[in-house]
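Table 4 source record.
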Amino acid sequence: MHSSRSNHLSPLKSRTSQQKVERLNTSRERTPGWLRSLMILQRGSDVITVILGIATLTIYSWTVYTQQQWTQEYRKLGTLQRNERDLTTTNEIIKDQLAQQAERPATGLVTPTTANTILLPPAPQRQFRESPNQKPEPETLAKTPLGY
């Protein structure tokens, strides 16, 4: 009986080991070339997609930032132009007030003529002298490196 049992179990063992071998063989089979190329293409497209996504976000954020900066600078420009107009207006008002005051006889101002013009004689020409401190010594020039 014992031998019949072992014979009886033997086919089961062989079937099980054959199935394991078949499973191992199927897992060791090489993937077809077209499938490998598609997998490589998928990995490549994944990398390209990530890079394009990062580039898109970077460009978008840069665009938003520059638009905000432009808006701020444009507001500053508007403020500066308004201040310039105000200063020009104020300057012209002051000029007009000075002109009106100068026309009044009580100020003591006189219209310029050749009779009341003051001419000053030119200053005499002076000789230019070099200061001893300004002239570099020849030894200093020799010690100074020619360049860096």
